[in-house]
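Good morning C.,

I know you're traveling, so I'll keep this short. The sequence:
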Amino acid sequence: MTHMLRIGRGAAAAAEAGTIRTWLLAAATFLLAASLGVLALAQSSFDGRAQRTQERAVDWTTGTRDANLIAQPVTDMVGTTAFQVVWLEPLRADAPLPPGLDRWPGPGEAVLSPALAEAGAGTVERIGSRYGKSVGTIGAEGLQAPAELLAYARPVGGADDLDAESFGAVGFGGAGASTFGEDDNLPPSEQFYGALAGLVFLPVVLLVTVAARVGAVARDRRSRLLAVLGAGARARACFALGEASVPVLVGTLAAALALTPALLIDLPLPMVDFQLYRPDATAAVPGLIGALLAAPVVVLATVVLLQPKADGAQQGGSQPAVRRGRLYRIGGFAFAPVLLVTVRGTELMSDDMKLPFYVLGTVLVFATLPAAVSMLCVGLGGRLARWGRRIGSSGSIIAGRRLAAHPQATVRLVASLTLAVGLAAQAQLWGGVFGENAARALTTLDRVGNSVLTVDYPQSSRRLAAFEKSLPDGVESAVLRVVTDDETVRSTARLIGSCDALKALNTPCSSTPVSVPGGGPDPRLRELVAWSTYDTASVDAQQGRTSGWRTTDNTSVTLLLVNSAGPHEDLPMGLLKELAYRHLGVDATVTSVGGFYSAVGGLEAATRWIRLLASTGMFVIALAAGLGAMGEFVRYGRELAPLSVLTGRRTVFGTTAVWSLLVPSLLAVGIGVLTSVWLATPIQIDRPTVISLASLAPTTLAALCGAIVLTVWGARVSVVSARGWRPAAD
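The tokens, ready to paste straight into the viewer:
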């Protein structure tokens, strides 16, 4: 057996497409080991975060009799990222501290996480003074992750500024305690694993399969020859293992090196503003070792299992091809039922089962789609050969017979294209679904900036007067009052404020309401009305006081801050938030128009994670498509090179390439796009349409360009091979 391993290692370099296969096997092993390692790191990170979250969770109690402290969490934003601020007030001398703090901040003081202090540095956000004087940073043991944004602050007025009845607490930690933190800015674990499976693992599995079958024709012939010469299944398996062992080992070692930095430092991840906590990574060492052991085993097992069996060699090599042909036909016939069950079944599933069912169904759809395209090409091949015979086209005859006789080659060719189309569509779908409100809010922010802000606050005329008196020059206040009819769900909006505030928004100043159709010429007011109402086409402007208005079940009252000095200049957001907390209380929220929608539920963060995973998956697909195509074209060129002698001309290569490469690619792209549109229907129910034929036009165009490149590349390889071809006993 050692002898067969050594022979296999020697044969690897001399084999057809041997160098390409070596690189592909190394890359496939590296990416599979790295992906499994990421899975282990993610699980350890989720576990570590859950433990630290529970240790700092607030153990609330009813009333103040048993309370040791008041812990009132509120949500604030820095830029477009939401985070938690916990207002604290000890009620007893022995009140327990939250994890990460070594002393109680004094009245008017705050303790910030290092990431928040860095993100809010400068005069715009004024994080250092927004909640009071910054007197330190939160320790790592009190944070879910090193990059978490978090603040603990103590109000100047003490318990009088907080809601002691609702937020009195015994301490921190405990089974029934209430958690808080940045979890809303991260996708839940089940969503992350689903995205990882569909966007990364599926392309990696494709790459492993392509790597195992590159140069398969020559290796299958050699394997059958070894069987004829008396080599048993174990000997041929050792030969295959020897051939693949070196690149698999190299890929495993490369993956180990790539995962090592996570064990040494808090590793920042690109595109997602997330740092992997080093203690979480070190806790995942057993899982990482398992990933580094499992990946080469899986790749080598794939290499061995995909070679012909001995009984096929004894029967002239036909049986393995027949068995693989049956598998392709099963996959092709299964495509339509799997697609139907995925689309209709998802709509019937309960909410907690919809996502797992949809992810599994989507994976099966795109796993069977290449086989379905191959079956179409097999049927097309016979008709193409007969048509070529009638018109005397040698290229059509050759391409038709090749399509009919080698469905496996067609599957390998179109698999990357179909998966690329599906992956791009899924990334666009989930990015659009998760980022729907975030995209709308960011568009509003781009249009009007922070030149107008909204303020929600506890209703107190005394506090409002103090706040308005503290406003800097050039900042005017007004009230947008919206009343909604419960029966008709129609809204009426009224803008109330001083003449300076009304003029700043380009509305008339009158003691009686004046209708301003569509919100008037000022885009700031139009955006305010659009975000605040259901279907209001106009707003009434009226001079009046901003105090005295009350929010009810069907009436919303929002305080507006308007830049009257420069309508296109941003207001000092950080300063105004600082003044709001000081005068309006800890419940006050100051945001840009639609601002909180850019972070609610972690939608923006989920979109960033999808883009990161989708970018990784597209890289893997590009690698599989590029190197896999190179291996296929080596065989393609060798098969067609003798035609230059038989036909006496090289134009046959172009005709053959069009039918053998371009037509299957076009079918794959077309069916892939239609499949992606239909697959999106259960996710887009009750949501704006994100995926349609029009929205997939850029993806379709890119895939078609890729198909044309593959065709030109294949024809070019054939011509080059024909120029240097000489008869040989192969």
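Safe travels,
E.
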